[in-house]
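**Backbone description:**
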Amino acid sequence: MHGFAVLAEIKSVAPLAHPLVIMTVGDREKDIIDSYAASACSYIRKPVNFAKCCDILLIFELYWILGAGIPPTASLLRQCAFY
C-alpha cells in the first residue's frame, strides 16, 4: 500500500485523532504538498545515513517535547514521542 493510501485510510477512520508525520527519503515538492493537503502535521526528509537519521529523529522529538504548542484537551505529546 502506498504511503498516501495509508494516510488517507488513517484519516478516514479517525480524523484528527492522531497527529501524522510523513518521514521519507523522497523530496518531491508534489509529495510535500500532497502530504500537508492530506492533513499530515509534518513532512520530514529522512537521511539515508543511519547516524544522520537518528539526529533528525532526536531533533524531531525535542521539537514535540519542548517547542510544539499542544491543545490542552489532547494528549498529542505522548502520541508523538519516540520511545
In short: The beta strands are 21-24, 42-45. Helices lie at 3-13, 29-37, 50-67, 76-80. The mean pLDDT is 78.
